[in-house]
Amino acid sequence: ASLESWHRAEALRDAVTLALVDREDAAPTTAPPGWRCERVHMPRLDVSSTDLRRRIAAGESVDFLVPPPAARVLRRHGLYTGR
């Protein structure tokens, strides 16, 4: 909802396609006007982003909690590891 307030939002809008993932327990996400968007359907996972970040920072595996490509990106870029 606040994408337009981001720094260089116009450049970002021109460079990316947003992935919209709807939650089973919430109303469908509305695509922001002017942005390229794709709806992604995936099964509900009962895990919080806070728990994922904590697990990664502690060196614990998240392989069973996120899709394999996501786990590879997290490892490759050292995301949430504090390094």
Map the helices and strands.
Layout: H1 9-15, E1 17-21, E2 36-40, H2 49-57, H3 68-77
Parallel strand pairs: 1-2
What does this protein structure show overall?
The structure is a single chain. With 83 residues, the protein is α+β, with helices and mostly antiparallel strands. It is 31% helix and 12% strand. It has 3 helices and 2 strands, in the order αββαα. The chain has helices at residues 9-15, 49-57, 68-77; strands spanning 17-21, 36-40. The mean pLDDT is 87.
Pick out its properties.
83 residues; 31% helix; two-stranded parallel ribbon; 3 helices; 12% strand; alpha+beta
Summarize the structure.
By secondary structure, this protein is of the alpha+beta class.
Number of helices: 3
Task: Provide the structure class.
Answer: alpha+beta
The helix content is: 25-40%
**Head-to-tail CA distance between termini:** 31 Å
Q: Poorly predicted ranges (pLDDT <50, ≥5 residues)?
A: none
* Oligomer type: single chain
Strand content: 5-15%
Q: How would you sum up the major sheet?
A: 2 strands, parallel
**What does the radius of gyration come to?**
15 Å
How would you describe the shape? globular
Mean pLDDT: 87
Please provide the count of β strands: 2
Which strand order do you get reading across the main beta sheet?
A: 1-2
SSE succession: HEEHH
